[in-house]
Amino acid sequence: MLRFVLRRLLQMVGVMVVLSFLIFAWLRALPGGPVSAILGERATPATRAALEKTFGLDKPIWEQYLLFLGRIVHGDFGASIRVQAGTDALEIFFDRLPGTIELTTFALVIAISIGVPLGYLAARRRATFLDNSSIVVSLVGVAVPVFFLAFLLKYVFAVQLGWLPVSGRQTPTIDATHITNFFIFDGLITGEYDAAWDAFLHLILPGIALSSIPFAIIFRITRASVLEVLDEDYVRTAEAKGLTARVIRGRHVLRNAMLPVTTVIGLQVGSLLAGAVLTERVFSFRGVGDALAVASTERDYAVLQMLIIAAAAVYVVVNLLVDVAYAIIDPRVRTR
Amino acid sequence: MRISRRILPAVAAGALALSLAACAQSERGGAGGSTLTFGAAGAPSTFDPFYATDGETFRISRQIFDTLIDSKPGTSEIEPALAESWEPDESGTKWTFKLRDDVTFIDGEPFNGEAVCANLERMYDQGADGQTAAEYWGSFFGGFKNDAEKDPSLYKGCEAPDETTAVITIDRATASFPTLLSQTSFSMQSPKAMEEGDANGIKAAGEGFTFPENAKNPVGTGAFKLEKYDEANGTVTLVRNDDYWGEAAKSEKLVFRIIPDESTRRQELEAGSINGYDLPNPVDWNSLEENGNQVEIRDPFNILYLGLNLKDKKFHDLKVRQAIYHALNREELVKSQLPEGATVATQFMPDTVAGYNKDLEPYAYDPEKSKQLLKEAGAEGLEMTFAFPTEVSRPYMPDPSTIYDALRADLEAVGITVKAVSAPWTAYTDNVTAGKYDAHILGWTGDFNDAYNFLGSFFTEPVANDFKTSNISWGKKLSDDLKAADSIVDEAERTKRYEELNEQIMTEYLPGFPISHSPPAIVVDADTKGLVPSPLTAEDFAPVSVGGE
Fold first, then answer.
1. B380 Cα to chain A: minimum distance (Å)
2. Residue B317 included in any domain
3. d(CA B36, CA A225)
4. What's the ipTM?
5. Is A299 in contact with B25 (Cβ distance < 8 A)?
6. Does A167 sit within 8 Å of B206, measured CB to CB?
7. What is the pLDDT of residues A172-214, one digit of tens each?
8. Residue B18 lies in a domain
């Protein structure tokens, strides 16, 4: 088992090196660059050339990449020019990560806590009004673009009704203490409960917008899975044995139906991170996604490189964990 | 009905949470009391304006720092600020500034002649990395101390004969001096803070810069001082400087909230959580006003032009260029595509700049004449790549693609074959500089009221990167004439010379085609009072208050 994990870890390092070079080269092949972003319209050819030289952008791509690797070894990931100018890109990633974790966790909680029970109920009451209307809702959830839903939510609940904040992570005038950058957690440990509550309110609208697609998928999978299980022989047997409806539903139907749902939830984590780019941008929610969006329009190379590589690393690690889990469940995988 | 009974408490809890949310919100209500909250489109890139080039950084710096000279509120004219008066010697190269004697920096250090010289010397004495970051110094003063022989600087030296006097010597007479000292980049910072904070310790790190302490703890003489930059929450909080030498700021706190998305800034304003934001989309102006907000339209201080790449010989015949200009229906474009208050341009500068030639007639829209001229020049069937930028909105072109479509249709109507190309903003400016397009749309917002700031930026060498005028017979003469005009000391004489040059540019040379001047707007809510819109987009927030306090 240890050898298997070690082998996979080595492969992972290889994947990351290749990936980082591809990202590095791809970014530099994109039109526009940090020099234009910094100098704007006023740049003369001489000032542009000077800045390119300072940034080392006049060197061949492989040399730039080697220098980049050399800097990374020394813990220097390059400074941001726009997202948080002057700050090291890795520091930005860790500054922004708590916000994204707060938001995606909240969205996932919404998606699961509504999607699973609703899917179950819809299956139990198949072809009733409840079933049909939830299917329509889930279709809308998948079909409506996140930015449009976000705009609509903000317009109704923030602008018109004034119930919830329009954007941001916390009301600036609240003057909260930030220790871990998990704003809710920070508010709880410092005893600034109003700040924690305020941060929670700021999560609601982006959380709902972000949860729309995972909710719809989880709902539909749960519904389909429950319908399938309800037809299984063991359910009929359980009924024939005279078990109570409660036991049948809880122990036999729900538990068995949950297997594919759990797999889908795992897959949704990835798409939540992707959805966070759009949602965070529209809600000015200072997370990794917002940083990525700003870095992309402003050609903030250091931040773009760091964030894309970090996202890739997360995927690779998750994959590794899944593989390890499979290897534990099914020993045959190890030898393949 | 076990399930519904289980769901009921959850529904009740949800409803309670929402109603609590409503209560909590109404208590906080965002910007109340004497806090002014302004929506910023981006994060400040530094708190040391010397190394900045972007408007969001300058907006914040302007509240924290003062310059020797400032622009008069609501105009592009200059007025005294930290310097009470200034006078040149006969040659126009030695300037004596009389300074205010009642100013201290927020760290208690006195503002005096020595402080002025310490600031200028610090700006001049940049290391290799600092030189590439200090774009404004490079643009206006040229070279730096350690390579003065290779690249001479406009700045020669500074002396402080007494507490309230600073004498600045420059290399040659130029109309831009001392006006250029009104630029926020050249703000006065505390010499002690600069020393302690290693002001010049900027370093290149990868494709960006890391800043020394001085750039994180700004120490100025302005109406506000920095309290906190909360990067995790995207807010910059300034507080009133109670020892300010001028009239104290009306608001106790000035908060900048970073909201990159324009429609979100608008929604925040409508929800009452910010008091204003800059550059509202012109299509929103009416509805913003209908909702009780104040859309302040600034006087246009910019130019939108259709630029030509004169490297290509097909544009070298004046008739071809005249034909292109006669083909453009600019009246219609301004009426249908540009915001209220926009005007048709007759030359490469707005009418508020000294040297504007008011007698110049606009080129008439005359497609027939255009076709005739093309025929005479033997350029029927002219083909050109014509480009526009995407994913950007500039004060002089709120929506590049609609402006482009109109211009392109005009060109095609006279038989010119247009190959449309576009690129995202940063790539676009790269390509224009590299001369990859035959024609492009671009513009300029003036830094201050000086003709050379417009004409010099476009047509002098080696700056002429957009029009490539060095490739045409008259290019060098135009560049030399403009430089000569800039060094005329007598203002009346200089103004007259620029008027002549403007006429010559538009009739004899026609290097490109001025299209329009557009007024950028700034919006504040109904309760916010005292904002004076600046044509230079250089608003001062000290006199601004919420709720008339």
1. 33
2. yes
3. 54
4. 0.84
5. no
6. no
7. 888 888 899 999 999 999 999 999 999 999 999 999 999 998 9
8. no
DSSP state at residue B540: -
Minimum CA–CA partner of A159 in chain B: B271
Q: Average pLDDT, stretch B409-414?
A: 96
Per-residue pLDDT at B464 = 58
Per the domain annotation, does B131 fall within a domain? yes
DSSP state letter for B418? E
Assess whether B255 and B369 both reside in one domain: no
* pLDDT surpassing 80 at residue B157: yes
CA–CA separation, A83 and A303 (whole Å) = 8
Q: What is the mean pLDDT of residues B299-328?
A: 94
Same domain, B237 and B326: no
For residues B199 and B492, what is the distance between their CA atoms, to the nearest angstrom? 40
- Judged against a pLDDT cut of 60, whether residue B27 lies above it is answered with no
The share of chain A scoring above pLDDT 90, in percent, equals: 33
> Among B21, B232, B428, whose Cβ lies nearest the Cβ of A286?
B232
- DSSP element (H, E) containing B159: strand B155-162
The mean per-residue pLDDT over the stretch B2-17 comes to 45
What are φ and ψ of residue B190, in 5° steps? -65, 125
Flag whether pLDDT at A169 surpasses 90: yes
Q: Is the pLDDT of residue B434 over 90?
A: no
B234 CB neighbours in chain A (<8 A) are 168-169, 284, 286
Are residues B272 and B144 part of one domain?
no
CA distance B385 to chain A (A): 18
Q: How far is A155 from chain B (nearest CA, A)?
A: 7
Q: B434 and B372 in one domain?
A: yes
* All structural domains of chain A: 1-74 (no CATH), 97-333 (1.10.3720.10)
Cβ–Cβ gap A39/B7 under 8 Å? no
Residue B49 sits in the same domain as residue B77: no
Mean pLDDT (whole number) for B255-283: 92
Q: What is the pLDDT of residues B496-517, one digit of tens each?
A: 999 999 999 999 999 999 999 9
What's the CA gap between B515 and B304, in Å, rounded? 5
B215/A31 Cβ within 8 A = no
Which residue on chain B is closest to A48 by alpha carbon? B132
For the domain that residue B129 is a member of, what is the CATH number? 3.90.76.10
* Mean pLDDT within A252-261: 81
Contact B291/A at CB under 8 A: no
Residues 6+ apart with CB under 8 A from B158: B116, B117, B120, B121, B166, B167, B168, B169
Residues in A closer than 8 angstroms to B58, CB to CB, are none
Min distance A31 CA to chain B CA atoms (Å): 5
CA distance B426 to chain A (A): 5
Q: What is the mean pLDDT of residues A310-329?
A: 76
**What CATH number is associated with residue B239?**
3.40.190.10
Q: Select from A121, A163, A178 the Cβ nearest to the Cβ of B21.
A: A163
* Mean local confidence (pLDDT), B327-331: 96
* Strand partners for B86: B97
Taking the Cβ of residue B37 and every Cβ of chain A, the question of whether any pair is shorter than 8 Å is answered with yes
Residue B21 domain-assigned (yes or no): no
> What pLDDT shows up at residue B20?
42
Pick the residue from chain B with its C-alpha nearest to A83: B43
Q: Are B270 and A76 inside 8 Å of each other by CB?
A: no
**Same domain as B291, residue B308:** no
Minimal Cα distance from B140: which residue of A?
A42
> Is the per-residue pLDDT at B3 higher than 60?
no
Round to whole Å and give the CA distance between A34 and A64. 15
- Identify which of B7, B32, B261 has the shortest CB distance to residue A282: B261
> Does residue B336 share a domain with residue B475?
yes
| DSSP, residue by residue, B11-56 | HHHHHHHHHHHHHHHHHH-SS-TTEEEEEESS--S-S-GGG--SHH
Same domain, B166 and B138: yes
pLDDT of A296 reads 86
Look at A80 and B230 and tell me if their CB atoms are within 8 Å: no
How many whole angstroms separate alpha carbon A134 and alpha carbon A116? 12
- Contact call for residues B137 and B123 (beta carbons, < 8 A): yes
- Chain A touched by B35 (CB under 8 Å): yes
Domain that holds residue B240: 33-64+222-298+522-548
- Please write the tens of the pLDDT for every residue from A95-115: 999 999 999 999 999 999 999
- CA-nearest residue of chain B to A163? B22
Is the confidence at residue B104, as pLDDT, over 60? yes
| Count: domains in chain B | 3
